[in-house]
Specification:
By secondary structure, the protein is of the alpha/beta class. It folds into 3 domains: 63 residues, Alpha-Beta Plaits, CATH 3.30.70; 72 residues, no CATH class; 108 residues, 3-Layer(aba) Sandwich (Rossmann fold), CATH 3.40.50. It is built from 9 helices and 9 strands. It is globular.
């Protein structure tokens, strides 16, 4: 079957092993100093490990693969104790994988395994359950429901409606031609879809003076197309600089990986900057990569 599954760039991988420790499902192992996907059956394709990788060596791709087997995963995890089981259930819960959760519960019930705190987890009443499972691996909060109060910073009083800083159309990366005339000599902002909605001053602070393409590394199809297209924009489109703007959620790190792969593929070098934004719209990181 064709499904989303992780892909590891062995050249980028530095063998730190962080992703292996973070993959409770057991799909990854460290072999000859490199992280390897050793079992497609155990890879759920949700991409929580993307945020664990410090060098951006892990991305998501859609390809022919064996289907994920939750029963096999849970049968394996039962031997590792309650903390590992709970971490896995939390991972599924945060990604709204209700079918896999039901399957996992059936396996636990059939084997008379009871996990403390799981009922509380389902009710979302454990505020810091990661502290109870040993490993601070929160999965991808990108699909978890959250509410927070906007910043109490004194609002800026506008004298009128703020003008848009968008200078071209289209903006979705699949739709933008690498040969578009507006790319020539441009500073290109590659922004994750959610960024503009999370940052109050997106247009004035981040988009002004730049050309824009948007993409979602978790939900969009054709990641290889993105890599090749960005490489063409560097080589033939004549862009001046590349700035990738992503959210703090782990799955969003895939967009940085896409830009880095494009930078490697291109024969011409352009500087690459990373801007990382918190869920509340605060700038967490702003640096040249």
């Amino acid at each position: 079957m064709k499904r989303t599954i992780i892909k590891i760039d062995e050249e980028l991988c530095n063998g730190c092993g962080v992703c292996v420790k973070g993959c409770h499902e057991g799909a990854l192992q460290l072999i000859n100093g490199k992280a390897m996907l050793v079992s497609e059956l155990y890879c759920d394709g949700l991409g929580a490990c993307l945020g664990d990788c410090p060098v951006g060596a892990i991305t998501l791709e859609e390809r022919e693969s064996e289907p994920y087997d939750e029963t096999a995963v849970m049968t394996r995890l039962m031997k590792k104790g309650d903390s590992v089981i709970l971490a896995h259930l939390k991972h599924l819960f945060e990604h709204d994988q209700h079918d896999f959760l039901a399957e996992a519960e059936s396996v636990l019930k059939a084997n008379n395994v009871s996990v403390p705190l799981y009922k509380q987890l389902k009710k979302k009443v454990v505020p810091n359950i990661t502290g109870l499972v040993g490993h601070q691996h929160s999965g991808c909060p990108g699909s978890r429901e959250m509410s927070f109060t906007p910043s109490s910073v004194q609002p800026v009083v506008a004298t009128g409606s703020q003008p848009s800083e968008l200078q071209q159309w289209p903006v979705q990366l699949h739709l933008v031609s690498p040969g578009a005339t507006f790319l020539k000599g441009a500073d290109l902002l590659v922004a994750a879809d959610c960024c503009a909605f999370s940052v109050g001053d997106f247009h004035q602070t981040y988009l002004k003076g730049k050309r824009l393409v948007i993409a979602c590394p978790k939900l969009d199809h054709g990641k290889d197309v993105y890599i090749n297209k960005l490489a063409d924009m560097i080589d033939h489109g004549g862009i001046n600089t590349l700035t990738v703007m992503i959210m703090e959620v782990p799955c969003c790190g895939g967009l940085l990986s896409i830009c880095q792969e494009a930078q490697k593929l291109a024969s011409r070098h352009v500087p690459l900057k990373l801007i990382r934004i918190s869920l509340k719209g605060e700038k967490l990181e702003d640096r040249w990569v």
